[in-house]
């Protein structure tokens, strides 16, 4: 099974870059088998379509706007956030992840399993570091994702 | 009179608001407002100059590579560092492939839906679609079977009410004019285009080590070791796969994108009349072919009042007049004061008011050249190269104008910008392969040098890195003091084009281009989107938040 861990965000806007920091954290602390790809996607929209399409299961990590406290992490499965399940959302950005997945569906290449871990940010200030609150969330989320990948048949080890 | 507020404009990067006053179905006044605070340059202060490009390429989510190039050039310019030929060629290939990827995505995924009615494609006859497609191109993918399959798939999506990606289109709008067969052809190519933007991304990754965010630059060259026999370096195997990828992408651009663009432009010929706006242009020279950035394949130029014949050709990146005369004014932007500063002295002191029609109304500064607003982008580069006598550009521009039935001067328009981008993609696809050949030939001659290692000296240095990016002239301005960055400013293509009014009241290019634009239905201002999208806006920053609550955040307000 080909797994993609996709970290999204802008590294220069503190917590907005959580997904990218998450990828760096995983690279530093774990050893992944060949069928797992760690991807720092930055803030690419539609230009990452192919990365998603090449995987069987995808873990997306990004900041979200949701009701709750900064640092709260929400988990969504594909069916929770695909277009059509939610009211029509138009991203102010290029083309959002929901649209990208819908496009992959039209192309018959949408991965079977897509899980989004979304975290509520504490700061969008200009800065290359995470807020202490969100930095503290990295190890826990990493353990969770690693455990799931191991359970799906691709053993991940600590380094 | 109706006042339309479009906030935000969709299918662009970043958050842009457009206000337009409409009288008798025509836009009579307009305001362009960048709704995002952009202070990321401040992050670079006090950091080592040799790391600037790593940070700078995170400015934006789409134009990563271009900021890296501009940034590294600013340091090289400041310190007068030579760049070896192999490094120039490798950078040229990366720039050209980035352009190809960017233009494909802009045409199909970000602007086509302004012209293509997806729902109408359901009524098309796939056989006739194949005939139409085969009449304009001999691309092997244009088969009846392919078009039929796409139509089926689309039908099932429409039936389940899940138009998804296409949801922000204006179906059945009276300004949509393509016949169903052309719509189906465009939709099929829209889906196919994703496979080819990917090949361009792969080519960039082979040379740059990573995509997005290349890793192979260094002050004085690239960190791409060249040894044709070594597995870990740029070798024959990698050159061969680059060639395959770039050839396939070239074929798509030249046999699909370009003919599609010509076909669509021929049907929407009236759009060569709209969207003229600011016809002062700036393009900088690009594709360096020597080690000192003095000899370029594509010349730059400054053009005033749309007069291509009187263009002042810019031949290199050391043009002192150009360097001295780029300034930014903040009279109508949310920054302190009303002043005009040169980027080396640039300040970023926020002063948010609210949207004031006659006061401050945007986060975008107003860059001016010699005190005048200018338009940047593919038309500017083509006009410059045309005026400068580049034979390839002349041939391509003349041939496509003849096919569509317009003249070169009609390119000062909404459709002209879209056409210019397709011509530029065609050109860049060719340049990619040409520079790969030049690289192999140069290495074959025994030149293995790919970097001039450079220490940052003590003292104060100022530099500017010019780059003719897919969206237009980009410049990064750096002031180095005692091995640290003292000041850093990026004057990006979209700030030139999305610029607000200045201290003299002169409108920016987006604003001016909308005046005279028709609007058939004020509550569905498709025509405004057409003109704004033709600039390929990219409002830097790229805040990127998923909103799982799915609240509707695009608002068209008509007062």
TrEMBL record, chain A:
<protein>
    <submittedName>
        <fullName>Hydrogenase maturation protease</fullName>
    </submittedName>
</protein>
<comment type="similarity">
    <text>Belongs to the peptidase A31 family.</text>
</comment>
<keyword id="KW-0064">Aspartyl protease</keyword>
<dbReference type="GO" id="GO:0008233">
    <property type="term" value="F:peptidase activity"/>
</dbReference>
<keyword id="KW-0645">Protease</keyword>
<keyword id="KW-0378">Hydrolase</keyword>
<dbReference type="GO" id="GO:0006508">
    <property type="term" value="P:proteolysis"/>
</dbReference>
<dbReference type="Pfam" id="PF01750">
    <property type="entry name" value="HycI"/>
</dbReference>
<dbReference type="InterPro" id="IPR023430">
    <property type="entry name" value="Pept_HybD-like_dom_sf"/>
</dbReference>
<dbReference type="InterPro" id="IPR000671">
    <property type="entry name" value="Peptidase_A31"/>
</dbReference>
Automatic annotation (TrEMBL), chain B:
<dbReference type="InterPro" id="IPR001501">
    <property type="entry name" value="Ni-dep_hyd_lsu"/>
</dbReference>
<keyword id="KW-0479">Metal-binding</keyword>
<protein>
    <submittedName>
        <fullName>Nickel-dependent hydrogenase large subunit</fullName>
    </submittedName>
</protein>
<dbReference type="Pfam" id="PF00374">
    <property type="entry name" value="NiFeSe_Hases"/>
</dbReference>
<keyword id="KW-0560">Oxidoreductase</keyword>
<dbReference type="InterPro" id="IPR029014">
    <property type="entry name" value="NiFe-Hase_large"/>
</dbReference>
<dbReference type="InterPro" id="IPR018194">
    <property type="entry name" value="Ni-dep_hyd_lsu_Ni_BS"/>
</dbReference>
<keyword id="KW-0533">Nickel</keyword>
<dbReference type="InterPro" id="IPR050867">
    <property type="entry name" value="NiFe/NiFeSe_hydrgnase_LSU"/>
</dbReference>
<comment type="similarity">
    <text>Belongs to the [NiFe]/[NiFeSe] hydrogenase large subunit family.</text>
</comment>
């Amino acid at each position: 099974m080909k797994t993609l861990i996709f970290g999204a965000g802008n590294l220069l806007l503190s917590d907005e870059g959580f997904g990218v920091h998450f990828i760096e954290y995983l690279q530093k602390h774990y050893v992944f088998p060949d069928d797992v790809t760690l991807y720092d996607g930055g803030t690419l929209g539609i230009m990452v379509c192919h990365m998603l399409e090449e995987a069987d299961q995808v873990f997306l990590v990004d900041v979200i706007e949701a009701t709750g406290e900064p640092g709260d992490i929400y988990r969504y499965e594909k069916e929770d956030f695909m277009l059509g399940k939610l009211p029509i959302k138009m991203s102010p950005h290029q083309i959002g992840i929901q649209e990208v997945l819908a496009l992959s569906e039209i192309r018959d290449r949408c991965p079977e399993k897509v899980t989004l871990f979304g975290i509520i940010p504490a700061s969008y200030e200009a800065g290359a570091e995470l807020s202490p609150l969100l930095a503290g969330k990295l190890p826990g989320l990493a353990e969770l994702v690693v455990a799931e990948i191991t359970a799906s048949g691709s053993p991940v080890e600590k380094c | 009179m109706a006042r339309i507020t479009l906030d935000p404009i969709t299918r662009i990067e970043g958050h842009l608001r457009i206000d337009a006053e409409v009288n008798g179905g025509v836009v009579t006044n307009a305001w362009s407002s960048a709704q995002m605070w952009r202070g990321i340059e401040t992050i670079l202060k006090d950091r080592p100059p040799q790391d600037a490009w790593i940070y700078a390429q995170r400015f934006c989510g789409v134009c990563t590579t271009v900021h890296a190039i501009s940034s590294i050039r600013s340091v090289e310019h400041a310190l007068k560092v030579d760049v070896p030929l192999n490094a120039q060629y490798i950078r040229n290939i990366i720039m050209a492939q980035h352009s190809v990827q960017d233009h494909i995505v802009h045409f199909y995924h970000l602007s086509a839906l302004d012209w293509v009615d997806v729902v109408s494609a359901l009524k098309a006859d796939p056989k006739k679609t194949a005939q139409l497609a085969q009449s304009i191109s001999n691309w092997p993918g244009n088969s009846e079977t392919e078009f039929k399959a796409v139509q089926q798939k689309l039908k099932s999506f429409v039936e389940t009410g899940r138009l998804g990606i296409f949801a922000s289109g204006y179906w059945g709008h009276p300004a949509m004019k393509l016949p169903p067969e052309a719509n189906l052809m465009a939709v099929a190519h829209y889906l196919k285009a994703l496979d080819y933007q990917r090949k361009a991304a792969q080519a960039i990754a082979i040379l740059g080590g990573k995509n997005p965010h290349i890793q192979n630059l260094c002050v004085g060259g690239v960190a791409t070791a060249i040894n044709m026999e070594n597995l870990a370096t740029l070798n024959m195997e990698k050159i061969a796969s680059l060639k395959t990828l770039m050839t396939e992408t070239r074929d798509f651009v030249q046999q699909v994108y370009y003919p599609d663009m010509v076909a669509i432009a021929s049907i929407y010929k009236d759009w060569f009349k709209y969207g003229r706006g600011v016809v002062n242009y700036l393009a900088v020279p690009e594709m360096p072919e020597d080690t000192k950035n003095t000899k370029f394949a594509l010349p730059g130029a400054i053009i005033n009042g749309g007069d291509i014949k009187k263009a002042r050709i810019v031949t290199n990146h050391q043009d002192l007049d150009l360097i001295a005369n780029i300034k930014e004014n903040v009279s109508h932007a949310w920054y302190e004061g009303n002043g005009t500063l040169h980027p080396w002295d640039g300040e970023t002191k926020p002063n948010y008011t609210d949207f004031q029609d006659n006061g401050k109304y945007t986060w975008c500064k107003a860059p001016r050249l010699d005190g005048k607003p200018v338009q940047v982008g593919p038309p500017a580069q083509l006009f410059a190269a045309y005026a400068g006598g580049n034979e390839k550009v002349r041939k391509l521009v003349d041939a496509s104008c003849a096919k569509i039935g317009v003249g070169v001067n009609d390119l000062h328009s909404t459709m002209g910008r879209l056409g210019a981008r397709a011509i530029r993609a065609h050109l860049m696809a060719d340049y990619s392969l040409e520079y790969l050949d030049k690289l192999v030939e140069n290495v074959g001659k025994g030149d293995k040098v790919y970097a001039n290692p450079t220490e940052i000296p003590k003292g104060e240095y100022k530099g500017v890195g010019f780059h003719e990016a897919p969206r237009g002239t980009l410049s990064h301005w750096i002031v180095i003091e005692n091995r640290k960055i003292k000041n850093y400013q990026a004057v990006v293509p979209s700030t030139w084009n999305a610029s607000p009014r200045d201290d003299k009241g002169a409108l920016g290019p987006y604003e001016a281009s909308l005046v005279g634009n028709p609007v058939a239905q004020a509550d569905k201002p498709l025509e405004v989107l057409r003109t704004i999208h033709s600039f390929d806006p990219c409002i830097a920053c790229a805040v990127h938040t998923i909103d799982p609550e799915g609240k509707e955040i695009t608002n068209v307000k008509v007062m």
